[in-house]
Amino acid sequence: QGVLLAGLGTFGTVREPLRLDTDEVLEIRRPVFHMDMDMVWLQGLKYRKVTLPGEMAIKPLDLERLSRATSYSQQVVEGCVEETIRLFSSHMRKKENIAFAFGDVGVLARQRDKVHMRFFAHCTQWLEGTASLIAGLRS
Q1: CCDC81 HU domain: from which residue to which, for each copy (predicted)?
Q2: Does the global pTM surpass 0.85?
Q3: Which of 51, 69, 103, 121 has the most crowded CB, counting CB atoms within 10 A?
Q4: Do the strands 9-19 and 106-111 form a parallel or antiparallel pair, or are they unpaired?
């Protein structure tokens, strides 16, 4: 399942083969981020274009669940998410270098003429469960 942050992008996973030296092929899940910002802001920027699988169910960020996890009201959580996206967008519009950390997921950053999402190793390891060594190598 993918998670949509409206005005920013979608977090999801893709399955891909990992070829080992032993000619063995393992299928792993890799986290991805698909930018979904106004293309005018992205003009002249380099970023990895990600295609999410067509069969992937994409749902909006579960603000109610996030509210329960943080002990803040759903209205406060919603306001924080909206303001964070607006702040990031504002820096993008002004062509400023910026980095936003997403909890245990990773960092979305603009550095000079590049925008990239760097996932934390423990996020990738969590996706792979027992295959943490392989997941760590992939991150």
Answers
A1: 58-130
A2: no
A3: 121
A4: unpaired
